[in-house]
Amino acid sequence: MLSYLTSSSDGYTALATGFNTAFTQTPDAVVAVSTPEEVVEAIAYARDLGLPVRVIATGHGTHGPIDHGLLINVAGLSSVTVDPVARTATIGGGARWAQVVAATAEHGLAPITGSSTNVGVVGFITGGGLGPLARSHGFASDWVRGFTLATAAGDVLTVTADENPDLFWALRGGKDGFGVVLDVTIELVPLDSLYAGALIFAEEHIEQVLRGWAAWTVDAPADVTTSVVVIGFPPFEQVPEPFRGRRLLMLRFAYPGDVATGEQLAAPLRALAPIYIDGLRPLPIADVALIHNDPSDPGPGWGLGGMLTSVQGGLADAVLSFVGPGSSSPFLALELRHIGAQTRVDVPEGSAVGGRNSDYTFHIIGAPDPSLFESVLPGAGAGFTAAIAEWISPETTVNFARADTIDRAWREETRARLEAIRAAVDPTGMFPFDA
Questions:
Q1: Is the pTM of this model over 0.90?
Q2: Secondary structure E strands in 106-179
Q3: What is the C-alpha to C-alpha distance for residues 405 and 393, in angstroms, rounded to an integer?
């Protein structure tokens, strides 16, 4: 029998808290599950009480407070089974990418993962999923071969291109509102290493490198994925000495091929300016998370992102006014990613992924000071998006969307089809769709 915890129960807060600790989650009840049968039981409990249901695994996708209903914590659904002959992995609904990367690397195989392997697999995939191999391999959801889904009615469905194909279309990029994903099966790629890492440049070279990178991306190889991020590191002892108290530009680079070709492809980027730290090297696929080195510990966070049609023209001027040498803003980091190439190619049977018509993304991260999250950062973020408005794509991807941008997560016809599928599989709205 499952234990449904309320706010007066020991363990309630730990089960309900996500990766972003800025939001206090206070659902009517939270329950931890570790088997598909327990998920079905929890859904029946919510159905009998008329409670809406939301799901949490790692909590990376939580962008606001949950103050009612039942929260199902699926972190216990963390199994990973690899079939090296079929080149597939079947992954539990609460597993993180790190588990998958480690299990598949033993066979010389790799998933198309995100930049952080600490993120949950299912939330990333159902939102499309852009990672360090985006240009060469597309969205993570393009590699899905099937789901197992528990619905509001308590049914457990196999969801593939041949069985429940409408749901298969929707779950690849349509995000939430369909039920609880019990597991997902993905195709793996034969890949045991990359030529990858980051070139790090000092503050005085930020403008030169940013403009040079933007120009380089116009004719960049289709199998190389890069990004630039300007980070202002605080002067704290916990920060490694080479970064402490400095503003630096990191140019991330990932090429899924041999060292000699990788070095040749990276040569124009190495020549942009004197390099402070050269971190490009042969990288075992098991260390793919080192390319971006995203934080792995929970904490308060504020972020804003979207997609761009271009990084040419005056975009660099706008970016530099916020994070260039001598500038002042409450942003901890500002990143531009180069996507396109394979992300523009939909799967043969189609998917709900939004944003395939854009070649770049942007993301800003505010200083991790909760006192700024309501009073300062929203205004600064609005100022930045106003400054780059002419380059912002009219369509984004749902993993980047928030309540005020969710209307741009899909094209109108895609949104209408998603709403129809949600209504068919969950007619009472047990699983609300939250941006």
A1: yes
A2: 109-110, 144-150, 156-159
A3: 12
Instruction: Name the residue among 337, 332, 330 with its Cα closest to residue 378.
Output: 330
The CA distance from 353 to 175, in Å, is: 9
Q: Can you give the C-alpha Rg of the chain in angstroms? A: 21
φ, ψ of residue 216 in degrees (nearest 5): -65, -35
Question: What token pair was written down for 379?
Answer: 């205004």
Q: Which residue, chain included where needed, has tokens 């809406």? A: 52
**One-letter amino acid for residue 12 of the chain:** Y
Tokens coding 219: 């004719």
Instruction: Please list, in sequence order, all residues whose beta carbon lies within 8 angstroms of the beta carbon of residue 57, skipping any fewer than 6 positions away.
Output: 73, 74, 75, 77, 93, 94, 95, 96, 120, 122, 123
Tell me the two tokens of residue 423: 């209504």
Mind listing the pLDDT tens digit for each residue in 90-145?
A: 999 999 999 999 999 999 999 999 999 999 999 999 999 999 999 999 999 999 99
Alpha helices in 118-217 (DSSP H): 121-126, 134-137, 165-171, 206-217
